[in-house]
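Justification of resources, computational component.

The compute hours requested in this renewal are based largely on the per-chain cost of generating structure records like the one below. Each record pairs the submitted sequence with a full structure-token output. That output is archived, and it is also reused by downstream analysis tasks.
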Amino acid sequence: MDEMKRALIDEYSRLHATTDYGGSGHKVLPFLLPHVLALKPASIVDYGCGRSNLAELLAARAGIATVAMYDPAVPERATKPAAIADLLINVDVLEHVPDEEIDAVVAEMASMARDALIIVDTRPAKARLSDGRNAHVSQHGEAWWLERLRRFYPTLRPFPARRHGRVGFKTFDAALPAFEEWSIMSRLVVARHARRWARLLTGRGRH
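The structure output for this chain reads:
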């Protein structure tokens, strides 16, 4: 492993160890679930999962039998799965990878699953790295990411990420009817906000 990649992994290991950084992936559940239900994978891997339980939430709702979570910056999730999964999800990860490292990371992702769902944040992050750089070291628009990712995912196409400042990509055509997709998203978003308000009203936190 080269020095730059090792330094970046160490940086995020410290963030994961001292904060809840990387634990909010569940917020994209409503927007990924319709695509997962349409594809019907038997196995899923979350690449760069941080401390998120997004893969487990998707698996529970989509009847996915085999779940793996991989993140080299989280010790208990740092072992790369041996088996090739049906679907890889990658949420708010690639913007943290320096441009010169992106090809190597995406090549590894493409080797781990037959299909992929990818979401990238295109805005600056609130967090800073120890050297002063913005935590989103790769800030690019949809067209740039599509061209770069298609080197490894030739069938990649955009899909609405439905979160401000984010772009989504998937490798497959399978899709639910528009009304069914909207219905699933709406129910999950309403349920998430209801849980949040319940926690606020009972004084048990903001998230």
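The radius of gyration is 17 Å. Residues 3-32+39-174 form a domain with the Rossmann fold fold (CATH 3.40.50.150).
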